Known about the structure:
Layout: E1 2-6, E2 17-22, E3 29-30, E4 35-40, E5 45-49, E6 54-59, E7 66-67, E8 72-77, H1 81-85, H2 109-117, H3 136-144, H4 170-185, E9 188-196, H5 198-215, H6 222-235, E10 242-244, E11 247-249, E12 256-258, E13 260-262, E14 265-267, E15 270-271, H7 279-294, E16 308-312, E17 331-335, E18 339-345, E19 348-362, H8 368-383, H9 386-390
Parallel strand pairs: 12-16, 16-17
Antiparallel strand pairs: 1-8, 2-4, 2-7, 3-6, 4-5, 6-8, 9-19, 10-11, 12-15, 13-14, 17-19, 18-19
Amino acid sequence: MLIEVKVPALPESVADGTLSKWHKQTGQAVRRDENLVDLETDKVVLEIAAPQDGVLSEIKQADGAVVKGGTVVAVIDTAAAVAAQAPTSAPAAPAAETTPAAANSELSPAVRKLAAEHQVDTQQVSGTGKGGRITKGDLLRHLEQQPAPSEITPPPAPAGRGEQRVAMTRLRARIAERLVEAQHTAAMLTTFNEVNMQPVMELRSRYQDAFQKKYGIKLGFMSFFIKAAVEALKQYPVVNASIDGGDIVYHSYFDVGVAVSTPRGLVVPVVRDTDALSFSELEQAVVDYATRARDGKLAMEELSGGTFTITNGGIFGSLLSTPILNPPQSAILGMHKIAERPVVEDGAIVARPMMYLALSYDHRLVDGHEAVRFLVTIKEALEDPARLLLQV
């Protein structure tokens, strides 16, 4: 029986996708739910899996083809499954040759990209995932065990002056489009402040062990910033609003996007109803989204919507920056590197762990005094974390 393999239904916000890489070729046996081809959209990479066991009898759309939801991309012959799986007269491979790397054909897009970037032979990597599948963590551990760059003989420098032209990925093209859109359509300004992170750091240090023992996850900084942002958004609802044509849309919910850097580019998964979540629930959500974002496992609906965004350039060492709006949102908060700096307290100069904060906002909707007070509210909440519990 011949079974058609179709592109899954795509959300209204995603018109089409590009077939980036076929993992099976015509004539090869396939298993049900095995990834056949990666579908790259402007938000995520999806896997198109085999609907049944069988043999891939025809590929109708090659690598690089732009397809829409419902497009037939391949045909599987299920009647050939028995023949493909039947034992042959050839001797079976020794059991010792069966290794966790046997599942390498099922690598996630993120793992494949990372392996290609570092020129890693995945057959040399032991997988700890389901069925021996290699995860990004497995690959990172493998890379950490390799000799440092200084111990490796660099390849000879190429002669002459070369160039390489590579097509933008759909995600990179979409990022570029939205950044330009934000700068062209919004009256974007940025206001800055700084926050003394010592109270939050002391609180984390005091309760870290108990928190981790109870909830099984570390108490990070992001949950404090989300909580502080929610309190500020409640006081200044215009920062949580957006412009739709000639209307201002005020949101009574607080869906906060957290920017995550991935091998494919920046994505912003959205944590829904953050005002109703505890510190542990926020930490769990952020870690889960970050992990699945880097493994290319986010669903499209997890990247849609959002009323406010937080981005943390500090994890890369950024001391100060001006984040760009995530349309149609009216504001974005930028976190930065924590660094000890001299400050004056009670007439004395002392060293404190300070962080610069940046709030970029759409001046068409948010007035300057509202943006400044919004950022001061976040600063006050972080410098006195009890405010987050008392909501004052």
